[in-house]
Amino acid sequence: KANDLDIRENTDWIPNDLSFTSPADKENFYREQFTPENSAANAKRVEDLNKDGLHDLKDLTVLSERIHLISDTDGDGLADKTGIFAEQLNHLIGGVAGGVLYHEGEVFVCPVPEVVKFRDTDGDDKADQREVVVSGFGVHLAYAGHDMHGLSIGPDGRIYWSVGDKGIRVKTADGLDYRFPYQGGLMRCELDGSNFEVYGHGERNIQEVAFDQYGNFFGVDNDADFEGEKERFVHIEQYSDLGWRSQWQYLREDYNPWDDDLMHVPYHEGQPRWFTAPLGNYENGPAGFKPNPGTGLGPEYNGYFFLTSAPNGQQWAFQIAPKGDSFAMVNEHQIGDGIPLVGLNFAPDGALYGVDWGGGYPLNQNGAIWRIDVPAAKANRLRADTQKWIAADYSAEKTGTLTGLLGHADQRVRLKAQFELAKRDALAEFTAVAAEVTAPQLARIHAIWGIGQLIRREAAKDEALTALFNDPDPEVRAQAIKTVTDRYGRLLGLDRIPAPTKEGHALTSTLLPKLNDPSQRVRLQTLLGLGRLRDTAATGAIIKLLAGKENHHGLTYLRHAGVIALAGCAPTETLAGLARNPSDFLRTCASLALG
Is the pLDDT of residue 551 over 70? Predict the structure, then answer.
C-alpha cells in the first residue's frame, strides 16, 4: 500500500475520489495534493520513501512492482535460482501487479493503470524491451488491491484480464470510449492491444477469471464486507453486468441497493432485472482460480476448478454442470488448509502451483511458491505426454501432427496447436476437423476457434462457419454462432449501445432460423449473435421469441441475451411501442434495452 493508496486510510478524500471519471482525473488530483508544500499533511498518506525529508509526489514512484524469474535448474523439484526479469512498473498512480503472463516469448503484466508487455531479446533472462499495450484503468483510489489481475490467453487467442472496482475508462485508437468508472470488469484485446473490449462488467474484485473447455468464463467475486453478505460464484457471459457499483461501498445506514435488494445472492423474484445474478455464494477472500486443463493432478480431478480462499489459508475444488440457462456448482470440497495462497497455475508437470504473500496482515517479505499434487500412483498417466508437447517447438511440427493435437486430452496442448495452425492460415485443415462429425468434440471446437482467429485476420470468410449452424451437435452449433458473430460486437461492450443502423447483414437470414433451435444454449447464442449484427431485419423474430417465454422466472441469462438482441437490433420507437405488450418478459427486455 506504499504506492497503491487505500481510500480506507484517506477517508477525507472520498468525495474527491467519487468525482473522478478517468485515471487522468486521479493523477491530476495527486499532482495537486502531493506537493512539497503539503508535505506535513501528506505524512499520514505516504512515507518519505526517497529520504529527501518530504512526503510528496516523488515518493509515489520510488518503488516498482517486479517480475521475478524463478527456476529449478537441476530438476530436483525445488527452485534454486531467482532473478528480476523486469521492473519499470512505478507509474504515479500505479497499482499492484496482480497478473503476469508468459506467451510466445513475451511477458505481460497488469499494474493499474496499464497492461505492459516486456521482451528479452538477447537471452540474458532480463527484459530489454517495454511496451504499453493498453491503458485506462484505476479511476479511483477505492480499496487497495482492487487492481488488475489474472492475465490469460483466451480460447480465441486474445489476452483476457480483470480489474476491480477502481474502474475503467479506455479510449481506443479507433475512437471507442469505454466508460465504466465505478465498476470492475473483464477485458480482452489482441496481443498488440488492438480491438480492446470490455467483455463483462459490474465486478467488485474478481482476482482471477477462468474459462472451461467450452470457453465459458467464470469467477468468484469478493464481497463488500457488509454484514450477512458472502462472496459470489458468477458466470460471465459476454456483455453481462454483475451489478456492483463502487459508490455503494460507502452506503451503510440508509438504502443500499446491494444489501436491501439482495443483489449479492442468487436469483430471486425481488431482485432488480437489470443485472445478472450470481449462480451461488462461496468462500471468503477468493483469489487464485484455475481449471484443471485436462491432465493435471489425477483423473479424479478432471473437470475441476480450484480456488484459494486467501485470508483463511484454505483451498477448494468444485465442478460445474449445466443448469437452466447457465450452470451450477457441484461436487464442491476443501482440498487444503493453512497456506494463504493468492495465485494459482498448473505447470507443465501437471502439478498445481500457488504463491502466498507470507501470511496475514501487515504484509511481509516472506512469500513463497508452493506445489500441490496427488501421490505419484494416482497421477494422470498422460502428464508426461502433456509436458512433452508443452515443451515442443510447434513451428517445427508438421501440419498433420498439429491437426491431430486439436483433440489432445489437455487444453494447453490443444490451444498451442490451434494457435500455431492459425499462424499458418490453415483454413482447410480447420474446416475439415470442424466438419467431421465423428471427430472428438473438443477438436472440432478448437477448429472452430481457429477459424474465428482467421476470420478476425480476414484470412477466412464467415461462410467457413455458417455450414455448422445445422450440425447435429448443439455445442458445435452454439460455438459456430458465437464465433462467427464475435467480431461484429465491439459496440455492444460500450456503456451505451448505439441505436441500430438501417444496414442489413449477410449473416442475418442464416442465423434467424436458429432462434427456434431445440437447444436453449443455441437459442441464447443466437440472440447474442443477432445483437452483434445490429440488423433491424431481425427485430420481429426476436420479439416473437421473447414474447413466447411464459415460464421465464430464473432465466437471467436468456433475459440478458434478449436484452442484448433488442438493444442491438430494435429501433428505439419499436422498443417504446412494446410498453403495453402482454408479455412481462418481453416488456422487461425492451425496457432494459432502452435503458
Answer: no
